[in-house]
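FAQ: What does the model actually see?

It sees only this:
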Amino acid sequence: MQFQHLKALLQKEFIMEWRQKFAINGILLYVASTVFVCYLSFFTQNAKVEPETWNALFWIIMLFTATNAVAKSFMQESEGRMLYYYSIASPVTVLLSKIIYNTFLMLALGLIAYSFYSVVMGNPVLNHSLFLLNLFIGAIGFSVTLTMVSSIASKARNSGTLMAILGFPVMIPILLMTMKVSSNALEGLSIDSSINEIIALSSINVIVVVVSLLLFPYLWRS
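And it is asked to produce this:
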């Protein structure tokens, strides 16, 4: 029964995103415009983009893209719809559906951003498998963390402000480690050189998911 509810909620998320194309289109426009501004800042002045700068700019774009994409998870849900969810599904099922959907969304946006960023700004990455693995784990970390923060912020009036206040301090450790692994990928180092950071990122993702599943039912009842 729980699996059927999870499947139905996931279908609802994808259908709503397909109907409200302005949301995903707005995020894609943000990514494209940000990358284009970076291009104008460097290449119109014949400035060389150092790998460290390339890496920092990419993850800054990913951070704000994740914030804009995942912030609407619970904020777009009306009180009536949340009450309806409360009557038909468990809080764990609702949260899992949001996490899974946001993970798919962030993976898609991450690959699109990486492809467009590489075309416009060049691609100095030497170890592509390590970079893509890091992008995969980082996208999961962003989606999991911001989904839980979104559920908390949606209970407040100034939800956008609270989202930024709660989200960015939590995202800093994930951002620092993803940038470290990406730096190793830019230098062409093997996956073994970043195994500690990869394990730490994966552990953070698991911990956040477990804590979210434990705490969300109490937030749900409020």
